[in-house]
Amino acid sequence: MDHLRATTDQPFDVVVAKWGSGEVKTFDSLVRHAREARGVAHPFPSPSNRQCTSDLKTGPIKSATLTKLCELNGLPVYAKGGCGSVVGSPWRIVVMCLGIRGKESTARSQEIPWRLNLPSSKEGRAWFRWYPIFDWTREEVFDEIFKHGQEPFWTYGMTDEHLAMIREKHPKATHGMSRLSCQFCIMADDHDLTVAAHLAPAAYARRCELEDQMQSTMMMSRKRLPIITGVIPQKSLLRKRKRNPEFLNPWSGLESNPMADFVMNPVDSVTVTPTVHRLRSRLLR
Ligand code: SF4
């Protein structure tokens, strides 16, 4: 978010999913709610039931967008967001712009990069979905980032030294994550889960704890995270969470990790890499 704030002159809103009580809705609380309130045996979301996406991302973002549209039009906003019809108002078009690429998966390759979202196009508004980098290759994405003098988000790159440390335990580890949306995604591959387990040991410990408490697995393979990643969760990090609420920062908990310097000062670490070209070539390996 700091990066986005620093590189745009547009208004920048952060949308947070909430329960009816006003409490922040998280992946963890979604899972606990499925088990405790609905008695679901396997309470984790799955690729065919991506409640995490709808409840934590698309739903709240849609609601916030409708509210914004109403505010722009000077219309009174309902308590639950939105204001009904915007017929005759000056602002009636929404373009939802997402950075997905067709080459990320077979399912994504079949999407249409510019289309009218019919279910959301009502009450006088037209709602489009636009994927501006849909046809780009991974190479072109990083080229564009470097062309503008910026650096990729640090989880996509590591110094050789840090990679060497990770490879002591995980010989197959490569530089950084190949894709990143949620830190521990239900659809991530084994490699990305392993890298995330190293980059965010506190969050990893919490997710492993959740699997233990639910007696269930996050991944459809039905393997527990430590089996997939080979990383033993550091239970001591869970105790720290109780003493220090700041510890809930998803990328925190790294002080006992050999990558601490890198992670605590990710930008500096990337900057000291001899040339951006070396970083770029690593990212593209
Ligand atoms: S990135 Fe993965 S875990 Fe996160 S909302 Fe999407 S599907 Fe769910």
Task: Describe this protein with a few key phrases.
13 helices, single chain, mainly alpha, 285 residues, 3-stranded mixed beta sheet, 2 domains, globular, disordered C terminus, binds iron/sulfur cluster
Structure description:
This protein is mainly alpha-helical and 285 residues long. The protein folds into two domains: 2-17 and 50-98 and 102-135 and 271-284, no CATH class; 151-266, no CATH class. Helix content is 42%, strand content 5%. The protein has 13 helices and three strands; from the N terminus they run H-H-H-E-H-E-E-H-H-H-H-H-H-H-H-H. A three-stranded mixed β-sheet has the order 1-3-2, with no helix packed on it. Helix 7 (190-199) packs across helix 8 (201-214) and helix 8 (201-214) packs across helix 10 (235-243). The radius of gyration is 21 Å and the shape is globular.
